[in-house]
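USER: My hope is that you can spare some time for a protein that puzzles me. I am handing you a single protein, as its sequence and its fold in token form. Walk me, if you will, through where the backbone shape changes along the chain. The protein I mean follows directly.
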Amino acid sequence: MTANGGFQPVFCTIVPPHVLDRLARNDDPALSHPARRSLEHDSYQRTKRRLTTVIGAAPAAAPAGAPADKPHRTIYDAGHTEDLPGTKVREEGSEPGSDATVNRAYAGLGATFELYLKVYGRHSIDGHGLPLDATVHFGENYDNAFWNGEQMVFGDGDNEIFLDFTIPVDVIGHELTHGVTQHTANLEYYGQSGALNESVSDVFGSLIKQYTLGQTAAEADWLIGAGLLAPRVTGVALRSMKAPGTAYDDDVLGKDPQPAKMEDYVHTGRDNGGVHINSGIPNHAFYLAATALGGHSWEKAGQIWYDVLTGGALKEDASFTDFASLTVKAARERYGAGGELQAVQKAWEEVGVRTL
């Protein structure tokens, strides 16, 4: 909890620190310099987030009155500076302009709002119509996108390894879902609870993409960040929910380190205890459950995961077993002892996570 009694916001980036660390050590300055600057930006923003939490800054206010069934979006342009939020360039209801990055950010915020409202009856990320703000063109060749507890921020990438971070809609949905988690289960950003925090964002980021494209579980690619990697990179995305550990295998980036099963769980003190790495395990469990159920993943598997996230029983320091057990309970309560329950139980069994 924050000093003023609100939920604890965390600083969350889509590109894991271990990826930028590797790039920062590269001999080619075209690769290492943007990565180093990005790490410096992230360190500053992370420290700022902690200080703001201690001070207890008031969160952004939702519009007065009952929440509307439409988003309240504002897009800002940082002009390649690090000043937030930047200059306002588009607001709710205005027509698209000539800047494709602005238009993609606006559309991605809307797609996220639409899934949560139309599928789960949630009004914005806080459930009460919170305005959705985003800043584009942040920093010089900034290799990341993040949710800072108050707004979205997108870099343009270095065009060597990463392209514009507004390109994949699931990246936008992923980061905004950190806001949903912030206002619901408030999962601690370390160890297994931190990996669950990341996994929930990947799950709903993927669902937002699938919902936008009208895809079934069988049609979806189950990739996070497809389209983000530059042509020189040997890889297809940042992460794969279908096959964790296979998203990239590149001379510069190295090999995707995500495990798919508990027997390969990575014990590390880096990246808040490997939150971006070990999220592959619950990610794969969701993929297995969703594809076993078939149809549109947001309807049954997504509903079960949403029930757990917002149900009030998920502890801030939840383990994988805690989360898995709650999904089993949620499946039984919503659908009974049929195929839905069996699909969820089998999914966790396949990735080696026990349920109580």
